[in-house]
Design goal:
By secondary structure, the chain is α/β, with parallel strands linked by helices. It contains 13 helices and 19 strands. The structure holds flavin-adenine dinucleotide.
C-alpha cells in the first residue's frame, strides 16, 4: 500500500504528490485525464480553458514552477479588462473610471459617492457585502454596477454575502481616485490583477507539466464511498482500496456525502455549502477579435453573458490566424438555477455578443459549443463559515488532509493551491 493516497488529479492533487514525492503517492482521479479545473480543450485549432485562467500574483516560488512547466515559453502582459454597461465600455474597475459612464448617471454616481463619504467618513465594520458596497461607493454606483454583477456572478444579492472574501479583490477607492477618475483616466492601474502570465502553447493546462511528470494516477476511479474508521475507499467501478494517509482535493460537500462515518450535524453543515455552477459558451469566429481586452465583465442584468474571455488575447496560439475564439460564462447555483436549455443559452449569448459588437454578424460564427462546469466559485454566504468549522473539526479527528479550492472550500487561485499543497506535504510527513 502506498504511503499517501490522494483523491483528485487537479492541480492540487498533482502538486501535493509533487511536493511529497511521486514515488510515495497514488492518485485516484474520476475523469480519464488530469488537470481538473485547469484542463484545456483543443478543438479545430482553438484552445479553451474553463473560464479565463491566467497566473497573477503567484509569488516567486510558484512563478518559477509554472515557468519551468512550460520551459519559459509563456506570454506576459499588463491586464486589459473592461466592463460593458448598456452600450458603453468602461475600463475596469469602473469606480475609478467614472468618466466613461454616460451622463446623467456619472454625476449621480459621483454625488452619491461623495455624500456617503462625507456623512460617514469613518464607517463601522460592514456586516454584509451590500453594506460594504454602499460604504465603498455610495448607493447609486453600488446598485448599478457591483450589486448587479453580484446577482449575475455570485447568483445572489450582496446582502446574502459576507465580507471575508473581499480583501483587495474589489478596489476600495479614495476620494481623489473617484473624483479624478470622473474627469479622465487615472495615471495608474487600480485593478488588483495588474499583470499576468499564460502558457504560449497548450492552454493553461501546460502549467501542470512540471507537477504531473512522474506522478502515479489511476484514471476513471470515481470515489463512491469512504469509511474513515476503516480507512477504506470504494470506487464506482466496484473496486476498493485501503489507505494509510489520505489527502482529498475533491469538493467537500461530495466528500461528506460519500462518508459512512459523517454524523447528522456534519451532513447538515455540508448541505449548507453553496457553490456556483456555470456554462461556458465557446464561439469561434471567422474574423479577428474586435477588442484588445483579455476578459470583459457584463453588468446588464437582462443579458446571460457574465464574463467574456477572448482566447487569442491570452496567447496567439489559442486561435488560428485572423480568427477569434470567445468564451462566455453564464452562472447559476442553488440560489438561482442555471438555465437547462443549452441551445437557447447558446443562441441568446450569440445575439448578445452581436449587440455588444464582439461578433460582426451571424455569418461570422463558424461554431458554437456549450459546456457545463459543475463547480465554479465557492459562495461566501453567511452559512459558509460556521458550516466549514463543523466539517473541518470532524475531518481533523480522522487526520484527513484537505487541499485546494473545493476541498478547503475557499477562494483559492492556482498559486494558492500550489502553496497549500506544499504546506500539506509537510503536515503529511509529520503525521
Ligand atoms: C471560472 C473560473 C476561473 C478561474 N480563473 C482563475 C485564474 O485566472 N487564475 C487562477 O490562478 N485561478 C483561477 N481559478 C481557480 C482555479 O481554477 C482553481 O484554484 C484550481 O484549478 C483548483 O484546483 P483543484 O485541484 O483544487 O480542484 P479541481 O481542479 O477541481 O480538481 C479536483 C479533481 O478531483 C476530481 N474529482 C472530483 N470528484 C471526484 C471523485 N468522487 N473521485 C475522484 N476524483 C474526483 C476532479 O475530476 C478533479 O480532477 C478559476 C476558477 C474558476 C471556476
Amino acid at each position: 500500500m502506498e504511503e499517501i493516497t490522494i483523491l483528485g488529479a487537479g492541480l492540487s492533487g498533482l502538486s501535493t504528490s509533487f511536493h511529497v514525492g511521486h514515488q510515495k503517492c497514488q492518485i485516484y482521479e474520476a475523469k480519464p485525464y488530469y488537470g481538473g479545473h485547469i484542463y484545456s480543450t483543443l478543438r479545430d485549432g482553438f484552445t479553451w480553458d474553463d473560464g479565463p485562467h491566467v497566473s497573477f500574483r503567484p509569488g516567486e516560488y510558484v512563478q518559477k514552477l509554472f515557468a519551468e512547466s512550460v520551459d519559459g515559453q509563456f506570454v506576459e502582459g499588463p491586464t486589459c479588462v473592461s466592463n460593458y454597461y448598456r452600450g458603453n465600455w468602461i475600463e475596469h474597475p469602473a469606480q475609478s473610471n467614472l468618466y466613461q459612464i454616460p451622463e446623467p448617471l456619472r454625476t449621480k454616481c459621483l454625488d452619491s459617492f461623495l455624500e456617503t463619504r462625507k456623512k460617514n467618513p469613518d464607517p463601522a465594520q460592514p456586516v454584509n457585502y451590500q453594506e460594504w458596497l454602499y460604504q465603498a461607493f455610495g448607493p447609486v454606483f453600488a446598485e448599478t454596477f457591483p450589486a448587479a454583477y453580484t446577482r449575475k456572478y455570485w447568483t445572489t444579492d450582496p446582502v446574502n454575502l459576507g465580507v471575508d472574501w473581499i480583501g483587495e479583490r474589489v478596489f476600495y477607492p479614495n476620494i481623489e481616485d473617484v473624483v479624478n477618475g470622473a474627469k479622465g483616466p487615472l495615471d495608474r492601474l487600480t485593478y488588483w490583477v495588474q499583470g499576468w502570465r499564460y502558457p504560449l502553447k497548450g492552454g493553461f493546462l501546460s502549467y501542470c507539466n512540471k507537477f504531473v511528470q512522474g506522478s502515479r494516477i489511476k484514471y476513471e476511479k470515481k470515489l463512491s464511498k469512504i469509511n474513515f474508521a476503516k480507512r477504506m475507499l470504494w470506487f464506482d467501478d466496484q473496486s476498493t482500496t485501503q489507505y494509510k494517509k489520505l489527502v482529498s482535493t475533491i469538493p467537500l460537500p461530495v466528500f461528506i456525502e460519500l462518508s459512512e462515518d459523517a454524523t447528522q450535524d456534519v451532513r447538515e453543515a455540508a448541505s449548507l455549502l453553496r457553490c456556483t455552477t456555470f456554462l461556458s459558451v465557446e464561439i469561434t469566429l471567422n474574423h479577428s477579435a474586435k477588442r484588445n481586452e483579455q476578459w470583459l465583465y457584463v453588468y446588464d442584468e437582462d443579458k446571460l453573458s457574465t464574463r467574456i474571455s477572448i482566447m487569442e488575447n491570452f496567447s496567439p496560439n489559442n486561435a488560428p490566424p485572423n480568427c477569434s475564439g470567445i468564451a462566455v460564462e453564464v452562472y447559476g447555483s442553488p440560489y438561482r438555477p442555471l438555465p437547462t436549455d443549452h441551445p437557447m443559452v447558446g443562441k441568446k449569448v450569440k445575439q448578445e455578443l452581436i449587440e455588444m459588437g464582439l461578433i460582426e454578424d451571424e455569418q461570422a460564427v463558424t461554431s458554437l459549443n456549450v459546456r457545463h462546469s459543475p463547480w465554479g466559485q465557492v459562495i461566501f454566504d453567511h452559512n459558509r463559515k460556521p458550516a466549514l468549522e463543523t466539517i473541518n473539526a470532524f475531518l481533523d479527528q480522522f487526520g484527513i488532509v484537505r487541499v485546494g479550492r473545493y476541498a478547503e472550500w475557499g477562494y483559492l487561485m492556482t498559486h494558492d493551491c500550489v502553496l497549500s499543497s506544499r504546506d500539506a506535504a509537510q503536515i503529511i510527513e509529520q503525521k
